[in-house]
UniProtKB/TrEMBL annotation:
CDD domains: HIV_retropepsin_like. InterPro entries: Aspartic_peptidase_AS, dUTPase-like, dUTPase-like_sf, HERV-K_Pro_peptidase_A2, Peptidase_A2_cat, Peptidase_aspartic_dom_sf, Retropepsin-like_cat_dom, Retropepsins. PANTHER family: GAG RETROVIRAL POLYPROTEIN, RT1 CLASS I, LOCUS CE15. This is POK9 protein. GO terms for biological process: proteolysis. It comes from Daphoenositta chrysoptera. Keywords: Aspartyl protease, Hydrolase, Protease. GO terms for molecular function: aspartic-type endopeptidase activity. Residues 98-174 form the Peptidase A2 domain.
Length: 182
């Protein structure tokens, strides 16, 4: 949704909340049109790690309040179970298979240089990739066909160094086109 200029505010819901789950969203550049049924947010249920903590209120919340009643909230992800898929890349009759990390937090898809086929061309780019490690000037691929779970689309990848265990990162540019929901 952020590609449309609509930002979903992350939040935490107490484990005993039983009402309708809503989202908070904003846009710095109104108006933004959202089609009925369009996916703009994703609920990520995480294990409750605070079962041993005494509740602030003695009664269950049921449908009486939305949000989190606690003070400090920490969201955690087990990085060893991040979603990975085998993908196929096709370019001028040639095929390569990579293991890709699916990442809804990344706007663009990336292939690490060590997994880029040496006989496939690279193009200079003025695009930058910004991440935890800072900002990097990226090369870009020619238009490739990418296949994930028998769904295909055409896309240009950025070629940038990734962590050693990651061959390829599939971002929202591909996930949205293929309708992949994590």
């Amino acid at each position: 949704a952020s590609m449309m200029g609509l930002f979903i505010l992350p939040s935490v819901i107490d484990a005993d909340y039983m009402g309708e789950i809503m989202i908070m969203a904003y846009t710095p550049f109104p108006p933004v049109k959202v089609q009925k049924g369009q996916r703009i947010a994703q609920l990520v249920p995480l294990p409750q790690l605070s079962r041993s903590v005494t509740p602030l209120l003695p009664q269950e919340r049921e449908q009486k309040g939305f949000g989190s009643t606690g003070g400090l909230t920490l969201l955690t992800l087990d990085l060893t179970t991040r979603p990975k898929k085998q993908i196929q890349l096709h370019y001028q009759g040639q095929k390569r298979t990579l293991t890709a990390l699916l990442d809804t937090g990344a706007e663009t898809s990336i292939i690490t240089p060590s997994n880029w086929p040496r006989d496939w061309p690279l193009q200079a780019s003025t695009a930058t990739i910004t991440g935890v490690g800072g900002m990097t000037l990226a090369h870009k691929s020619p238009l490739l066909t990418v296949i994930i779970e028998n769904k295909s689309t055409q896309v240009v990848f950025s070629i940038v160094q990734l962590p050693p265990t990651v061959q390829c990162l599939i971002g929202r540019d591909i996930l949205a086109q293929l309708g992949v929901v994590l």
